[in-house]
Amino acid sequence: MTTRLARSGTLLTAWPGWLAAAGLAAGVGTGWLISQAGPSPASVPPVPLALPVAVLVGWSLIGSGLLAARSRRQDHLALALIFTGFAWFASMLANSHNPVLFTAGEALFAVYYAGFLYLILSFPAGRLQGRIDRALMVITIVLVTVGQWVWLLFADSRLVCPTCPANLMAVTHDDGTARLLYSLRQAVGLAVALAAIGLLAARWRRASRPQRRAVMPVVVAGTAACAGLIAGYVAAVLGVPAASALGRATWFIAAAIPVAVLLVFIQRRMAQGAVAGLVVELGAPGAPGAAVDLRGALSRALGDPSLALAYWYPAQSRYVDSGGKPVELPEAGDGRGSTVIERDGRPVAALIHDPALEYNSGLVDSVCAAAGLTLDNERLQAELRARLVDLQASRARLVEATDTERRRIERDLHDGAQQHLVALRISLGLARQLVTGSPGEAAELIAQTEQQAADALEELRELARGIYPPLLADLGLRAALEAQARKAALPVTVEALGLGRYPQKIEAAVYFCVLEALQNAAKYAQASAARVTLRPDGQWLTFTVEDDGQGFDPATTPRGTGLQGVADRLGALGGTADVTSAPGHGTRMTGRVPGTELA
Predict the structure, then answer these.
(1) How many secondary structure helices (H) and strands (E) does the chain include?
(2) Whole-angstrom Cα distance, residue 318 to residue 446?
(3) How far is CA 303 from CA 27, 277, 278, in A?
(4) Is the dihedral of CA 388, 389, 392, 395 positive or negative?
(5) DSSP β-bridge partners for residue 544
(6) C-beta neighbour count of 99 within 10 angstroms
(7) Which of 85, 164, 282, 477 is 20 to 30 A from 394 (CA-CA)?
(8) Which element (helix H / strand E) includes 506?
(9) Mean pLDDT along residues 167-190
């Protein structure tokens, strides 16, 4: 589908002049044919203004198609309009006195009916929406092509009009068979018209207000044309004298369909011109401290009460609402549309709106341009609120992490060092009792107690390293990380040439963040090696941890507690953390924290 869209857009945008010239020539030729046809043309009812209407309908179809071609989202609609315009002109060949042109005109006479039905069912998207639409179109195409051609095999030209030239497609003249085929074709056409009216009515009930406003002129004209066809058929079957008048009226009603399409385009253009009212509303002075109701103003300008606004939050590369809460843009098939507003190639905000506005992109662009400054101001406020929300959540996570760590230290002290000290006390008590009566046993027990004391001291040192490693305090980041690299579960290379000392809180934050990334690489990434790089970057200390593991998709993989802890730890110091990865291409974590080297 993407390829077909691209091809149609290229054709219409590359050859608009040729298509316009061809349409102009076809209209002039149609006018000449009708004027030469005499008082009873074959395809145009003998009523006043029939000639200009016949010409202007074709021109309006082709002109509307060229207008629609300027929007890349309406390529199908543009093709349908232009095709129907030329099919309309082709049907006028039946007015010719030349048998070849007359026969060609009769063969193509009803093709524009299929074009009209397609426009009615697919407007404004230019795409059929379901199986019923496709079934009606297939039936109609068969009727206006195969049905018409089979009828011409048996029809004498006198069945069309008394003065028409010979029908060159006629194999035999059988008026009975011709009338039967004609009646069958009319009956099926009646069923199609009834089904189309029912389908349009059902969609109208389900449609939103913007969708109704976008299609109302076309739906009204199309429904009236279908109703006219039904009334004309019923009148002819019942032998009502007014049947011929109903047929002429239906021809004019069908001619109103392209006018309705053109009216929609004019309404869109007028709506863009009314954006000045939005500028006045946003710039009008209000009460001191009163906030501008930007969503309400944009909603009224676009005519979409369901409009919602989302603002870009660059710190986390996501959208948030005015309160700072995360917002997901709708995807295809969600029944909602979205328009991203950019400035200098960077997203500023997004409008989440009714899908009907996708086909009036000019209005959306004009409204966004008019509200550009206000949108930018609102984005800054939304970003501030989002930072506040993140800060509150980060503080809550840090408090929880601190409590968890405190309980772990308490548990380690209780289960480890405390038990060793209790055992030491008991051993010392036994040794005191044995020192006078059994000096040998007392000496052996004292040696065991010394070993217990050494074990308790080592356990306390390990616990202290987990709180703040002595090597980090004494020699700095590079030495502490190199020591951890030697004990890591996978080969780790540390690059930190010329790295000096930083404040204790900076070094501790980077140290524990790097350890968390190495632990993830060994535990989850199935990596065979990792590399740690630390370097000063002006007023920042930057570090990266890269592995050659299996990687993952950050868009579909939720951030774990470890990575969230890294972001919180760095965020508490005004820093940032970013993780880039792809399946099969390893993982890279980059962190930045503000800080300058100590003298």
Answers:
(1) 21, 10
(2) 65
(3) 37, 13, 12
(4) negative
(5) 533, 590
(6) 14
(7) 477
(8) helix 504-523
(9) 84
Q: Which two tokens stand for residue 7?
A: 């091809």
pLDDT > 60? residue 66: yes
The single-letter code of the amino acid at 243 is: A
pLDDT (tens digit, 9 = 90+) per residue, 332-370?
766 787 878 777 777 778 888 877 777 777 777 777 776
Q: What is the rounded CA–CA span in Å between residue 53 and residue 256?
A: 10
- Asked whether the whole model's pTM tops 0.70, one would answer no
CB atoms under 10 Å from CB of 430, counted, come to: 16
Helix/strand/coil for 589:
strand
Report the alpha-carbon angle 410-413-418, nearest 5: 135
Average pLDDT of the segment spanning 552-558: 71
Mean pLDDT, residues 145-163: 80
3-state secondary structure of 308: strand
Cα separation, 285 vs 302, in Å, equals 22
- What ranges in 318-438 are assigned the alpha helix state H? 361-370, 372-412, 418-437
pLDDT of residue 550: 87
573 vs 147: which has the higher pLDDT: 147
- Length of the chain, in residues: 599
Residue 288 has which token pair?
């001191």
In sequence order, the 6+-apart residues with CB closer than 8 A to the CB of 205 are none
Token pair 């809180």 is found at: 505
* SS3 call for 202: helix
Mean pLDDT of the 458-468 span: 61
Tell me the C-alpha distance between 471 and 450, whole Å.
26
Residue partners of 34: CB distance under 8 A and separation at least 6: 41, 44, 50, 51, 54, 92, 95
Distances (CA, A) of 50 to 56, 231, 332: 10, 21, 45
pLDDT digits (tens, 9 = 90+) for 80-135: 888 888 988 888 888 888 888 888 888 888 888 898 889 888 888 778 888 999 99
Backbone angles phi, psi at 283, to 5 degrees: -95, -5
The secondary structure of residue 60, as a DSSP letter, is: H
State the Cα–Cα distance between residues 115 and 308, nearest whole angstrom. 36
> How far is it, in rounded angstroms, from Cα 278 to Cα 297?
7
Question: In whole angstroms, what is the distance from residue 150 CA to residue 182 CA?
Answer: 10
